[in-house]
Amino acid sequence: MFQGMVSQPDQLHEATNYIKKLQIKLEKMKEEKENLMRIKKRKGSSLGQQSTPRIDVREIASTLEVILISGVDFQIMLSETIRVIHEEGFDVINASFSIINDIIVHTIHAQVDILFPSFYFIYKHL
Fold it and tell me: How far is CA 123 from CA 61, 64, 108, 120, 126, in A?
């Protein structure tokens, strides 16, 4: 037999051991996947319970910064928020969003509409 050559029974034994190691590794990976899926479900369900929309409004001189935080189930909130901003005499100058897990964070910047200066005057003195 040549040096470095492995007999057929030894090759079969090595292959059997390798397959057993792969099966053990596969089982560990399945368990890890199941654990991660359970964690994801727990986080997802707690996020769903806490995903009641939240709106923060900050006034900066003649501009507004509106931050709308909601779950994916509350996408209509963005259009409603923009509608209210317009009704109150502001023009949206910028809007952006970020998605973090199942939470959407919208940031809207608006400024007083030049056509509604009296509103801004009244707003400032309330």
Answer: 12, 12, 19, 5, 5
CB proximity list for 105: less than 8 A, separation 6 or greater: 67, 68, 69, 97, 98, 99
Distance from C-alpha of 37 to C-alpha of 31, rounded to nearest angstrom: 10
H/E segment holding residue 93: strand 90-100
- Both 25 and 2 in one domain: the answer is yes
Q: Are 103 and 70 in contact (CB under 8 A)?
A: yes
Q: Whole-model pTM?
A: 0.50
pLDDT tens track for 28-57: 888 877 777 776 676 555 444 445 788 888
Single-letter amino acid code for the residue at 49: Q
> Which residues constitute the domain of residue 108?
51-124
